[in-house]
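Task: complex structure prediction.
Instruction: return C-alpha cells for all chains below.
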Amino acid sequence: MDSNPIKVMPTPVDLTAEDFRKIGTDEKEAEVIQRESISAWRDAWQRLRSNKLAMTALIILGLITLTAIIAPWLIGKIYGYNYYSNDLLYTNKAPSSTHWFGTDDLGRDMFIRTWMGARISLIVGLAAACIDLLIGVIYGGIMGYFGGRVDEIMNKFSEILYSIPYLLVTILLLVVMEPSLGTIILALTITGWINMSWIVRGEIMQLKNREYVLASRSMGAGHGRLLFRHLLPNAVGPIIVTVTLSVPNAIFAEAFLSFLGLGVQAPVASLGSMISDALTGWLYYPWRMLFPAILISLTMLSFNIFGDGLRDALDPKLKK
Amino acid sequence: MVRYIANKFFYMLVSLFILISATFFLMKAIPGDPLTSEKQVPPAIKERLYEQMGLDKPVYQQYLKYLGEIAQGNLGISMKQINQDVSNIISQTFSASLKLGVVAIIVALIVGVLLGMLAALYHRKLIDNVAMVLAVLGIAVPSFVVASLLQYVFASKLHWLPTMGFKGPLYYVLPVAALTAQPIAFIARLTRSSMLEVLHADYIKTAKAKGLGWMAILFRHVIRNGIMPVITYMGPMTANIVTGSVVIEQIFGIGGIGKQFVQAISVRDYPLIMGITIFYGVLLMLARFITDILYVVVDPRIKLSKGKEG
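Output:
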C-alpha cells in the first residue's frame, strides 16, 4: 500500500476504448462450447466402458460368437471331420488331442458339435429376440400412441395371451408342427413379444405428452412420423435393454424344448439337445455334459450381466 | 374388492377357454387319427370305432363335446397306456409332483427372502457381494445344468445323497435344490432391492428416532414392507417351479406328472399331452389368480380402483 492515500491516476490520455471493455461474463463467450460435446450415446458408451464386469461379458460374448462361426469350419478343415461324421470305433472317448472335447455315443467329435450347438442356440436366441422386437415395438407403439379404446382392447388381448403359460403354448405348437429351426423360433415368439410391447407402451405413453411432440404435431406431422421419428427413437434405451435380456430367455427356452425332444432334430444339435443326450450316460462320460453345459451357462450369464450393465449405462437413474 | 376378484376370475376363465380351444384345434390339425398307425382294420370295425370315439361327427360337435367333458373333469383316454384314463394318470402321479412343488416353493421363499434380507442389511459388505454373485449365477445357469451337476457331485462322487428315486426326506434334497436355484436367486434380488428402499424410508428414521429396538423395526416395519414385491413374484415362481419340475423329475427319476408329460411327448400320446397341458394351465392360472388377490389383501395401500388394469 502506498502511504499516500490519493493515488496518482493515469492521465486520461492513456485510456483507450479497450479499457472500457465490459469485464463481466460476456454472454457471447458463455455460449461458446468449451469442451467437445458428448452425445447421449457416447455418454452411455463411456459409462458402459467403465463397467468392467459388463465389458468382460461383452468380450466373452464376442469370443463365443466368433468361435461359433469359425471353429466348426476350421477344425473340420484340419482334422477332416464335421459335426455329423461318426466313427463307431471311437465312441464316448474322453477329451484327447484329436478330439478336444471327446466324442459322443456315436463317435462324433464333441468340440465341433458343441460349437455348432452354440451357433444354433445363438441363432435361436437372437432371431427370437429380433422378432419379439419387431412385433413388440409395433404393437406396443400403437397401444401407447393411440391410447384410449385402442389401447384398452389391445392391452386386454395381450394380457389374456400373457396369462396362458408360454411354455405350454410353445410345447403344444411344436408337438403339432415339425420341429425345425424356423418353427422353434416361431413358437418362441408367439407370446415372447408381449413383454416388449408393454415396455414400449409405457415409454411411448410417457413421451407422447412432451412439448416437442406437440410442436411437431402442430407443424403437421402425421401419426407415422410422430411415432417412428420422434417417439420410438427416444425409447430406444429400454428397448435395447429388453432385447438383450430376452436373448438368454430364448436360449433357455430352446434348451428346455430340446430337453423334451422338441428342439432341433438330429444330426443338428443345439446346446440344450446335447445336454439332454448326454444325460443318459453322464455319470460315466461327464465331458459329454460338461462342455455344452459350461458354454450355455457362460452365454446366458454374459447376456444377463451385459444387459444389466447396459441398463445402468443407458439409464443411470435406475442404478441401485 | 368383489368386483376386482370377479374381474380377475373372468379373465382367468377367458384365458383357460382359449388354452383349451387352442389345444383342441391344434390336436385336430395333426394329420391322421388314432387309428392311422394301427394294423389294417376292417372298414366295418373302423367305422364302429370312429363312432365309439365320436370321430364321425362334425368338428364343432366334437369340440362342444370336448368342452363338456372337460367341464366334468374328464380328459379322455390315453392312446398309449392301454385302458388308462388321462384324469387317472394325472391323479395318480400328481401327489409326487405336488410334494416336490410345495416343498420347493416353501424352501425358495424362506431361503430367498433370508438371503435378500442379509444382503440388504449388510449392503456392500462381503455377504451382500456373495449373495448377489450367487443370485446372478442362479438366474443364468439353467436348472437342468444345476441338477446334473448336483447329481454328479453329491450323489455320484461323494455318495452323500441318493442319485435317483423319491422314497424319503433325503431324496428331496437334490431335486429341491435344483428346482429352487432360480426362484431363490430372483427372490433374493427382489427382497434385497425393496429392503434397501425401505431401509432408507422416512418411517424407519421415525421408528429409530422414537427409540424402537432394531428387532422391532426389522420385524414390524422393514420385513413387512420389504416383502411386498416377493408376493407379486409368487405366480411366476409357481409357473417356474411347475415347468422346471418337468425336467427335474426326468433327471432324478421321480414318477410325477412331469415325467408323464415328457414320455407322452416322446411317444406322441396326444390325449395325454392335451390333458396335462390343460391341467398345468389350470394350475398356473389359479396360482396367478391367487397371487393377484393376495397382493391386494396384503397391501392395503393399493387402491383397488387404480390397481393395475381395472
